[in-house]
């Protein structure tokens, strides 16, 4: 076996790493002895194992701080050893040495939480540099714990500083990630409407996730999701740089002679190849959505599988065909998914699949499929996820939900109210009575629906039918004349309001879709952005609508507001 050495490389100082133990698992005697000899000066203790079975035994007995293991060995392979270590609950960094880039092994190792891949034949320069970096991360983490225990007063000031830095970092993350279509109704084939929701939850100041949802010049949508391997500043920088370059490419598409997803990906991979470190890889996904053709071009790079639900509630699992992006060249597989007969599509990073269950016997990956079948919306799925997972184990997570808003249903209702406060109250009661004949409505849900429709219909009456703008509404509220004005103002010529609703039972919990439309200009498309401009007189109704319901979407022409709400069924909502 051939090894390369660089005599100029110097390991980290003994004072940095002498408290750590390294376990080397290698079945070839010469390789094992050379690794041990080269790494003895870096660690206080280096122990060796002759194969995977021996390595797992020694790991359980001596609890080393880092494991460096070969992949191909008799008995347990390196991947089997990694699974065995993770089965104990240990988060010990594991480096996997391999002489071939097997996509299946790469994907499985990443799913099991491998720390790094080390190519064979060995480059001791790379091995020492990688182990030095990981060792420093371990020692820094231990020092942080020690300081928290010993220096309470210092911690108080540090926390204040970290809070400031965290807020600054989150502002930068919010600036880099993009969602051009937040709360927008998108129109597709034969006028079928869709919406895209995103849940983005950075776990700490250094977030390894990123995303971007962009509307292209030709009416299609291009979506990007990234999950940088590892944690800390390196992962955060990689995710932000990748997302920024994605946005840069999108904003300059008009300069391209031609645009295809493959050309876009080739340019993106060229950029990443120059940016990534030797041992670094990137999990990400690209989705070119064409609603007029009812299809999505998909390129998944080691992200969790997509979940696609049909009208009848059946769920299709679409797994990625590409390894994570690294410095290794390779062809990109792009597949096309038809949206014909599809109700919704869920895209995610492994922050949701890898989260530990609160009951302590596995990860949320085991629960995800069942919960997705029960949950018609992203809000409902997240409610179930947070109820079942251990809060202290949560990582960065990003979920995207492409949802059809026009669905074939067994029940629908439509009504046109008189344009007065009394007419609005009457149509709400008429609707609730009709809905109660289809599903059981407890007092709480009925109250939320009544408040929701009161706010939505009043908004349609004010802005769409009576022509009351924001300034006039504020003045009427401050003067106490608001309620009287709604009953006295004459509607604009041709003014009308329509309330319609459908129930969709393609998930185990039914989805109620309510639509309020009017003949006015409607709300501005950014009215439902995440940070409302709340004043004492304005904005509280929009916040209430979001708190009581799962999703809100605004469209044109006229005023059109679509409200999605999961209706609970069964005893699980009782707690």
Going by CATH, the homologous superfamily of the largest domain would be PPM-type phosphatase domain
Structural class: alpha+beta
Instruction: Please give the CATH architecture of the largest domain.
Output: 4-Layer Sandwich
The termini sit apart by 62 Å
Which stretches of 5+ consecutive residues score pLDDT under 50? 1-15, 530-538
Most strands sheet: 6 strands, mixed
Number of helices: 17
Structure explained in plain terms:
With 575 residues, this protein is of the alpha+beta class. The protein has three domains: 14-148, Rossmann fold; 171-404, 4-Layer Sandwich (Phosphatase 2c, domain 1), CATH 3.60.40.10; 411-574, 2-Layer Sandwich (Heat Shock Protein 90). Helices cover 39% and strands 23% of the residues. The chain contains 17 helices and 22 strands. It has helices spanning 14-17, 29-39, 52-62, 78-87, 103-111, 124-150, 152-176, 232-251, 261-275, 350-353, 365-374, 378-388, 421-436, 443-465, 470-479, 482-488, 540-548; strands at 21-25, 45-49, 66-70, 94-98, 116-119, 178-179, 186-187, 193-201, 209-215, 221-228, 282-290, 295-301, 306-310, 315-318, 335-338, 342-348, 397-404, 411-415, 497-504, 511-518, 551-555, 559-566. The strands form four sheets. It has a six-stranded mixed β-sheet with strand order 6-9-10-11-12-15. Strands 7-8-17-16-13-14 form a six-stranded antiparallel β-sheet. Strands 2-1-3-4-5 form a five-stranded parallel β-sheet, with helices on both faces. Helix 3 runs parallel beside helix 4. The radius of gyration is 28 Å and the shape is elongated. The relative contact order is 0.08.
């Amino acid at each position: 076996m051939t090894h390369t050495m660089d005599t100029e490389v110097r390991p980290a100082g003994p004072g940095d790493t002498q408290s750590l133990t390294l376990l080397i698992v290698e079945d070839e005697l010469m390789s094992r002895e050379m690794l041990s000899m080269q790494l003895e000066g870096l660690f206080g203790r280096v122990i060796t194992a002759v194969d995977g079975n021996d390595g797992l035994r020694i790991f359980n007995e001596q609890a080393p701080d880092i494991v460096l293991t070969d992949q191909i060995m008799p008995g347990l392979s390196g991947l089997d050893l990694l699974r065995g270590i993770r089965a104990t609950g240990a988060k010990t960094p594991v480096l996997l040495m391999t002489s071939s880039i097997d996509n299946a092994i790469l994907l499985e190792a990443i799913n099991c939480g491998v720390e790094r891949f080390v190519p064979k034949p060995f480059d001791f320069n790379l091995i020492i540099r990688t182990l030095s970096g990981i060792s420093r991360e371990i020692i820094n983490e231990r020092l942080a714990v020690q300081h928290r225990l010993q220096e309470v007063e210092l911690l108080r000031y540090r926390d204040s500083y970290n809070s400031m830095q965290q807020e600054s970092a989150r502002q930068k993350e919010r600036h880099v990630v993009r969602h051009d279509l937040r709360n927008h109704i998108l129109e597709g084939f034969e006028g079928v409407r869709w919406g895209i929701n995103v849940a983005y939850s950075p776990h700490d100041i250094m977030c390894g996730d990123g995303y971007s949802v962009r509307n292209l010049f030709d009416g299609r949508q291009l979506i990007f999701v990234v999950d940088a391997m590892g944690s800390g500043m390196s992962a955060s920088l990689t995710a932000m740089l990748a997302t920024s370059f994605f946005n840069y490419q999108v904003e300059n598409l008009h300069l391209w002679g031609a645009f295809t997803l493959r050309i876009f990906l080739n340019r993106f991979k060229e950029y990443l190849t120059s940016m990534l470190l030797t041992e670094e890889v990137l999990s990400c996904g690209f989705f070119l959505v064409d609603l007029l053709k009812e299809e999505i071009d998909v390129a998944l790079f080691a992200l969790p599988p997509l979940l696609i639900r049909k009208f009848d509630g059946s769920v299709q699992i679409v797994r990625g065909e590409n390894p994570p992006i690294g410095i290794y060249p390779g062809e990109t597989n792009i597949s096309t998914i038809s949206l014909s007969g599809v109700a919704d599509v869920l895209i995610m990073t492994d922050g949701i699949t890898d989260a530990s269950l609160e009951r302590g016997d596995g990860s949320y990956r085991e629960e995800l499929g069942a919960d997705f079948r029960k949950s018609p919306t992203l809000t409902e799925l997240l409610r179930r996820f947070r109820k079942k997972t251990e809060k202290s184990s949560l990582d960065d997570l990003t979920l995207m939900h492409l949802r059809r808003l026009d669905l074939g249903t067994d029940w629908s209702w439509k009504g046109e109210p008189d344009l007065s406060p009394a007419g609005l109250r009457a149509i709400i009661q008429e609707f609730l009575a009709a809905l109660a004949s289809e599903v059981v409505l407890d007092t709480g849900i009925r109250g939320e629906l009544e408040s929701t429709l009161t706010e939505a219909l009043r908004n349609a009456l004010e802005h769409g039918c009576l022509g009351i703008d924001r300034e006039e509404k504020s003045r009427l509220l401050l003067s106490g004349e608001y309620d009287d004005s709604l009953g006295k103002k004459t509607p604009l010529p041709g003014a009308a309001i329509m309330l319609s609703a459908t129930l969709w039972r393609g998930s185990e919990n039914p989805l109620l879709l309510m639509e309020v439309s009017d003949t006015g200009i409607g709300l501005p498309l950014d009215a439902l952005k995440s940070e409302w401009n709340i004043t004492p007189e304005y904005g509280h109704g929009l916040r209430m609508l979001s708190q009581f319901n799962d999703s809100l979407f605004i469209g044109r022409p006229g005023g059109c507001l679509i409200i999605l709400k999961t209706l609970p069924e069964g005893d699980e909502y009782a707690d």
